[in-house]
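Progress note, sequence design subtask.
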């Protein structure tokens, strides 16, 4: 998921890491410092349109390295969230560094997430612009609930419960969708989907160039 237009990264004040509050946290998380940039898949590639496999082995160096790489890739692409299939890996995992509507910054990763949404009678739907790192350069209005809970595991197999409101709730829904083979384009009308793809065709090369510049700057 891309950062909402006009929203800068929050100042390191109120931060929750893996769902728990911390006193302070660096602008660039340790995972991103350690990681390497991977190529971001683009809508139309087969891996984005099928469900990912569950992670069955926890605590491995390979899993930790994947999470590190995903964090760095997310930062280079100026994202708020990134799913494993967006870097070509068929595993049920996403990372995030995303603010909610109260200015709280949420940072972490979730493995094998299960999404819980409010009951239909009590849920509140919000229409807001949404972008995706795999649909570079396009933004469209998407309807999402204003609250969401994701249950899953961290890289060591410990249970997680991550609660989100506002923009962070949107991020949790967006990234979980990815792991089941859906992008936000699948939630659009045919006309709006064509509009988004037209935006992508017009702007993708500019977006790719910006990512290259930021990758070089981080590497330096």
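Output:
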């Amino acid at each position: 998921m891309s950062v909402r237009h006009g929203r800068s990264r929050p100042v390191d004040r109120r931060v929750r890491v893996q769902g728990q509050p911390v006193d302070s946290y660096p602008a660039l998380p340790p995972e991103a410092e350690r990681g390497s940039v991977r190529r971001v898949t683009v809508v139309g590639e087969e891996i984005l349109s099928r469900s990912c496999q569950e992670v069955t082995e926890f605590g491995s160096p390979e899993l930790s390295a994947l999470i590190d790489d995903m964090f760095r890739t997310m930062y280079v692409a100026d994202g708020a969230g990134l799913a494993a299939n967006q870097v070509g890996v068929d595993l049920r995992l996403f990372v995030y560094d995303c603010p909610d509507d109260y200015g709280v910054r949420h940072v972490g990763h979730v493995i094998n997430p299960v999404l819980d949404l409010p009951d239909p009678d009590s849920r509140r739907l919000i229409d807001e612009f949404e972008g995706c790192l795999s649909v570079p350069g396009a933004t469209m209005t998407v309807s999402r609930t204003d609250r969401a809970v994701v249950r899953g595991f961290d890289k060591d197999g410990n249970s997680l419960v991550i609660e989100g409101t506002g923009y962070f709730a949107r991020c949790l829904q967006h990234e979980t969708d990815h792991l089941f083979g859906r992008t936000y384009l699948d939630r659009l009308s045919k006309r709006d989907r064509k509009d988004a793809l037209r935006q992508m065709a017009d702007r993708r090369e500019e977006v790719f160039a910006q990512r290259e510049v930021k990758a070089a700057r981080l590497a330096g």
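The mean pLDDT is 94. Work on this subtask will continue into the next period as scheduled.
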